[in-house]
Amino acid sequence: MVNNSNLSQVKQPWASPTDDVIDALIVNPEEGLTKEEIKRRQEKFGKNQLKKEGGESVLEIAADQFKSIIILLLAVAAVLSLIFGDVIDSLAIVVVILINALIGFFSELQAVRSMEALRELTQVTANVRRGGIVTEINAKEIVPGDILVLNGGDVITADARLIETSKLRINESALTGESLPVDKKKDPLPEDTILAERTNMAFKGTSVVRGSGEAVVITTGMKTELGNISSLVQSAQEESTPLQNRLDELGQKLIIVTLALAAFVAVSGRIAGRDLRLMIETAIALAVASIPEGLPIVATITLARGMQRMANQNALINKLASVETLGATSVIITDKTGTLTENQMTVKEINLPEGAIEVRGEGLALEGDFKWEDQSTSDGITPTLEKLLKVGVLCNDASLTVQDSEVEEAIGEPMEIALKVAGQKAGLTTESLQKQMPEVRKIAFEQETKMMATVHQQDDGQYFYTIKGSPEAVLDISIKTAQQSDEEKDLDESVRGQWIEKNNAVANRGLRVIALAYKTNSSEVDEPYKNLTFLGLVGLMDPPREEVRAAIERCKSAGVRIIMATGDHGETAREIAKSVNLVESPDAPYLLGSDLKDLDNLSDDERQKYIDTQIFARVDPEQKLELINLHQDQGEIVAMTGDGVNDAPALRKADIGVAMGQRGTEVAKEAADMVLEDDFFGTIVKAIEQGRTIFNNIRKFVLYLLSCNISEILVVTLASVMDMPLPILPLQILFLNLVTDVFPALALGMGEGDRMLMEEDPREATEPIMTRRQWTSMAIFGALITATVLIGLAFARNNLGFSNTKATTVSFLILASAQLWHVFDMRGNETNILKNEISRNFFVWLALLITVALLLLAVYIPFLADILSLTNPGVNGWLLVLIASFAPLIISQVLITLRVVN
């Protein structure tokens, strides 16, 4: 058995040779740790994760329910009731406090757990070698001694000593503040080397920019350098979303108005000779009723439910604030490959010096042949074509698993998969070629060169260099072209220009174009990108996704502009843009990424040209930042897609960073606000619709709550001024506050939204929840309900001869019922009066059923009726309640249809 106590004694690993570090950690780099050893080390060192700062426990969530001025006011009311000897009222208020707290507790707990579950879906993973096999695991499961396998785009998930490197560069800015990536190596360093200069170490929280390597884990979790920094933080301030800030501001304004009104009611009631205790309790109850304390609860549930809906549609939200921002998105800057297209390339044509060839067969199908445009040129696989196909198969990182002449599994970049499929159609497999010419060296693709190369040893002792990359880059370093007779011809400027014209012609047909070249050399370490023989051009097609056209049309109707920013050729980008109806003109203009410079010095006309352009080609990640800035300066809310390491700055800069879940790197996913599990553009559109729905739902229940609350205030205030009996008593107000605030408001927050939302332009990002129109609507709705309650109270006393208790019961029921029916006033102006987003909402009907049942229980259960001072209103009383409570709804519906309110 391994002595785990030795594992904690690896000190200053950067100063020790790799063999010494490996021996100290008791691990074989070729095999990794065994299952039994992993289990023992996990028990000793725990999970590889940082302690969560500021996270709330169950007890803290429960305690938060009582940290409110609202609860304080209720508690004062309970104490005063007890002082005045009204024990039942005091107990009833305490029960209301507890019920409110329980609803808030369970609602917030559910929302917190939902968001935690969503975060679990986007946990960082790591590639480790265990039991001789490289496998992807959750980063939390890593232990000291694990062998990390690092590649470009990976997030490093533990502190580790590098044991193998190949052009490895790591971005350590998150840890050291150094903006430039660091070149890494495995050689030992002096003991006094500072953190920023430990070039043989990889640290948790940093990311691989390029290259590859292997490292043995030294420390995990809070023992890492990032953990040491984290432990210095005493507490983390909880993030407040813009929506939460707006709700807080609204609540603060309401508190001031409420306290003034409550004081006025108490003083005026006392002057009118009403009981002091009754007026004080009424004033406090009014204060409680007028502040929509259900807002935070309902808002949290609405946001959490929206996040769940987005997750069900393959859009994982990393940041809560993004849910609100999504609804205001006005510009989407999207990549082409895999987002607008299928991301399944097929070789469609090959251009050789001796002619053009159509390659038949679709997708991963191995059936297909090579049809020459000019049959007199050749009728089969010529030496040049065979050599080109060999280069395409060898200069390749993809892998195909073929069973019974069918591709069972394909792993790698779609373009490289397509090249291997084309080779298979000519009988050229990776296995047979590697057996003839084993690979001895590989030069990974780099953005700077836009090329990749491999070196293979031939039987004659020479080395065969294979190169593929962008046509411009490959042509620039080629000095010869291959010929049909297996000879070579000098590549002069005239011939180079002809190939450039061919490249443009192929790209104009909407194909992605790559060039292939080769050379032979007696040395395996010769410069790969020099003195090449040009073989030809390969045109590949990545067809548009069938659903994209409909998604783009939906964006257009919603006032959301779509801008394509791709690394592909401009003509290719334009062809795809036309095919998905992103642009309508066949000659729609496009700009190159290199044009995105000196934007601050543009004239107004020049700037407008950049703003109006919808296609940007040959764009690199740095230029995407300029594009984002250009539109944000115009006040647009910009969503940006990305998948690479270098996309991270643009994803952070955008108002909504959208990472690709399937082909995206871990760095991109970490930087993004949203991750698309299916890499599909239409998912972004669905998320925007959900964002709009969420904001619209919040606006609806805020308007609903405030309308109900203002009606309660006006009813009591006007009755006090007019020397009428109180239409509603303190405990009745508290009961209504609990019933009509929570259930219907929750139902509005759970709605699926107005189907016409995506027919409207995006709202302004700074638009408040309650605009002037909503405040006007609130006042009108509240006045209508108030008028019917006071008229109903007067009619019950003067015309029906009801006692004060019976008349107050009627006015209480009119107010409660009118508030319930008021939920149907939350429909949009453009919707049908009977069929709309409110009437289709199942939760609205469920809320009404529950609240009506609670009202009936309050009237007919003696115990509750005594506490609330209610009595049976009788047949006449119920008829009055029904007629009076529906009157505001009828008038409101007319006003909504006439677009006076809402």
Q: What is the helix fraction of residues, given as a range?
A: 40-55%
**Overall geometry:** elongated
Structural class: alpha+beta
Poorly predicted segments: 232-240
Explain what you see:
Helix content is 46%, strand content 17%. It has 902 residues and is an alpha+beta fold. The strands form four sheets. Strands 10, 11, 12, 15, 16, 17, 18, 19, 20 and 21 form a ten-stranded mixed beta sheet that branches. The chain has an eight-stranded mixed beta sheet with strand order 8-27-26-25-9-22-24-23, with helices on both faces. It is built from 29 helices and 27 strands. 47% of the residues are buried. Among the domains are: 243-310 and 688-897, Up-down Bundle (Calcium-transporting ATPase, transmembrane domain), CATH 1.20.1110.10; 315-340 and 545-679, HAD superfamily/HAD-like (Rossmann fold, 3-Layer(aba) Sandwich); 346-441 and 482-513 and 523-541, Calcium-transporting ATPase, cytoplasmic domain N (3-Layer(aba) Sandwich).
How is the topology of this model organized?
Layout: H1 18-25, H2 35-45, H3 58-64, H4 69-83, H5 87-121, E1 125-130, E2 133-138, E3 147-151, E4 159-171, H6 173-176, E5 182-183, E6 201-202, E7 207-219, H7 225-232, H8 242-271, H9 276-290, H10 295-312, E8 315-317, H11 321-326, E9 331-334, E10 346-352, E11 355-359, E12 370-372, H12 383-394, E13 399-403, E14 406-411, H13 414-425, H14 430-436, E15 439-446, E16 451-457, E17 463-469, H15 471-476, E18 478-482, E19 488-490, H16 493-508, E20 512-521, E21 532-541, H17 548-557, E22 561-565, H18 570-579, E23 591-592, H19 604-612, E24 615-617, H20 621-632, E25 638-642, H21 648-653, E26 656-660, H22 666-671, E27 674-676, H23 681-721, H24 730-749, H25 772-798, H26 804-821, H27 842-860, H28 862-868, H29 874-897
Parallel strand pairs: 9-22, 9-25, 18-21, 22-24, 23-24, 25-26, 26-27
Antiparallel strand pairs: 1-2, 1-3, 3-7, 4-5, 4-6, 4-7, 8-27, 10-11, 10-21, 11-12, 13-14, 15-16, 16-17, 17-20, 18-19, 20-21
Helix pairs in contact: 3-5, 4-5, 4-9, 5-10, 5-24, 8-9, 8-23, 9-23, 9-24, 10-23, 10-24, 12-13, 16-18, 23-24, 23-25, 24-26, 24-27, 25-26, 25-29, 26-27, 26-29, 27-28
